[in-house]
Specification:
By secondary structure, the protein is mainly α. The chain contains four helices and two strands, in the order βααβαα.
Length: 77
């Protein structure tokens, strides 16, 4: 199985609409289908939490939504 390293910026595209979100979601789908094995750097969790905290401070997401997104992203890891 092909291994792909995804950083936080790719992972955040799974839950936020950004440039290249479609491609990032295609990578996630390939992983869920068993065609790819996703690997993440050791700082991935910290970067995800930091990005969600920033989105919360900027009122892009609510606290409840940021918690849901964090749970979703941690399941994908």
């Amino acid at each position: 199985m092909k291994k792909v390293v995804v950083d936080a910026s790719i992972s955040l595209k799974w839950v936020f609409e950004e440039n290249d979100s479609e491609e990032a979601r295609r990578i996630l789908q390939m992983s869920q289908d068993g065609r790819l094995w996703l690997l993440a750097p050791s700082l991935w969790e910290y970067e995800i939490v930091s990005a969600l905290a920033t989105a919360l401070r900027r009122k892009i997401v609510t606290l409840a939504k940021s918690r849901r997104l964090l749970k979703l992203l941690m399941q994908a890891k």
